[in-house]
Design brief:
The chain is an alpha/beta fold. The chain contains twelve helices and eight strands. The protein has a domain at 59-260: Spore Coat Polysaccharide Biosynthesis Protein SpsA, Chain A (Alpha-Beta Complex).
């Protein structure tokens, strides 16, 4: 029985972190082969794009803001400089009870395309429930106040909506650190972005980057005010409705990460609590009848959230199997991995491959510890929906 538990845990962990991404790569390869075969049979050259230009849709950029005085002016300047027809673009800032002068800066903007929607503090979800329906654009682009968008990103997002089956488009968020070129999250973030890209080619990106994504305004449904991770639930609900959620890797936005590991851990725990909360909001994606989106949801998210339990199960089961050399080696490997994570925490390794490996191990372990904390908060219903902005350099 211990052997069954050990290998069950190992295989599920291997699936969510390695086999599922591999399956996405293989599916993409098979799809490309079929596409080329059809083109050969028809004696046609595979064409890129639609071959014609359609009129760009109207777009509203919606930003939920809470005490963003340090970056809101830069956000307004960045938004108004985006390469999109001015007559088809507007910016709506939803202030969630800001008390630091954020609202005054927005009101002081002379550009008629900028509007402010202030209200007492109630959480980001309440801001979105208020602002998305009142947006003027057919397409709503959602972004954060501290996220700076590259000029061509909006047009690259909205071009996908020429396909009536597309309901949401996720952009690419590039995280940077002003003091550390290689920080722990970078490798994992690149890995996650790659998975999103290949999920997008199947029309089933499981969750968006809150810093930049677009939706059809008509597909938005009001969220429960207690919703914690709106940027996860909104695209999933659109996916559940039968629409595609795709990924545009060339629509890029930039966001600074934080040096405060305590606050970063709290942010991850908050997201984890919201992830567990979201399961009951998209019941259709739990069923096999949802097809590939259900496979993606289970493989990429649900199993990932079970990773701490699976890691613990593999370790405990391994302790009952030490009468064989193979399992002595697997236990040693697990112990070595956790020791490496501890070295990553202490920072005693200063440079080289060992330091990078220790940093990645530490990030992986703390990420899973945050899932445990988030699950405990979810069980106790102690995670509030209103967010506190993370301090940046």
């Amino acid at each position: 029985m211990a052997e069954v538990f050990f290998w069950g845990a190992v295989l599920l962990l291997a699936h969510t972190y390695f086999l599922y991404p591999l399956s996405l790569f293989l599916l993409e390869g098979a799809a490309q082969v079929l596409k080329n075969a059809r083109a050969v049979r028809r004696a046609e050259t595979v064409k890129q794009g639609s071959g014609g230009q359609r009129a760009l849709p109207s777009v509203s950029l919606v930003v939920a803001a809470y005490n963003e005085v340090s970056c809101i002016q830069q956000k307004l300047e960045n938004s108004l400089a985006l390469a999109y027809p001015a007559e088809r673009f507007d910016v709506l800032i939803g202030s969630d009870g800001s008390s630091d002068g954020t609202d005054d800066i927005v009101r002081g903007c002379s550009d008629a395309r900028v509007r402010l929607s202030p209200a007492p503090r109630a959480g980001k979800t309440t801001v979105l429930n208020r602002c998305i329906p009142m947006a003027q654009g057919d397409i709503v682009v959602l972004s954060d106040a501290n996220t700076m968008i590259e000029p061509e990103a909006i047009e690259r997002l909205v071009r996908h909506f020429e396909d009536p089956e597309v309901g949401a488009v996720c952009g690419k968020l590039r995280l940077y650190n002003p003091t550390k070129q290689d920080y722990e999250e970078s490798a994992y973030w690149s890995y996650e972005s790659l998975i999103k890209m290949y999920e997008g080619r199947r029309g089933a990106v499981v969750g968006a980057n809150g810093g930049l994504y677009a939706i059809r305004r008509s597909l938005f449904t009001q969220l429960p005010p207690s919703t914690i991770v709106d940027d996860f639930v909104i695209p999933l609900r659109i996916l559940e409705q039968g629409y595609k959620v795709v990924y545009e890797e060339h629509a890029v936005a930039h966001e600074e990460t934080t040096e405060d590991y305590g606050k970063e851990f709290g942010r991850r725990a908050r997201i984890a609590a919201g992830n567990f909360q979201s399961i009951r909001m998209v019941p259709g994606l739990l069923l096999p009848t949802a097809g590939f989106p259900a496979f993606a949801f289970w493989s990429h998210k649900l199993l990932r959230w079970c990773a701490p339990a699976l890691m613990g199960l593999a370790l405990v089961a391994n302790l009952f199997l030490l009468d064989r050399h193979f399992y002595q080696f697997t236990l040693f490997s697990q112990a070595l991995f956790y020791a490496l994570a501890y070295l990553g925490k202490t920072g005693v390794l200063k440079r080289g491959t060992a330091k990078k490996a220790a940093s990645v191990a530490y990030y992986f372990v703390t990420m899973n510890l945050a899932i445990v904390v988030g699950f405990w908060r979810f069980l106790r219903n102690s995670q509030r929906a209103a967010w506190d902005r993370t301090a940046r350099a």
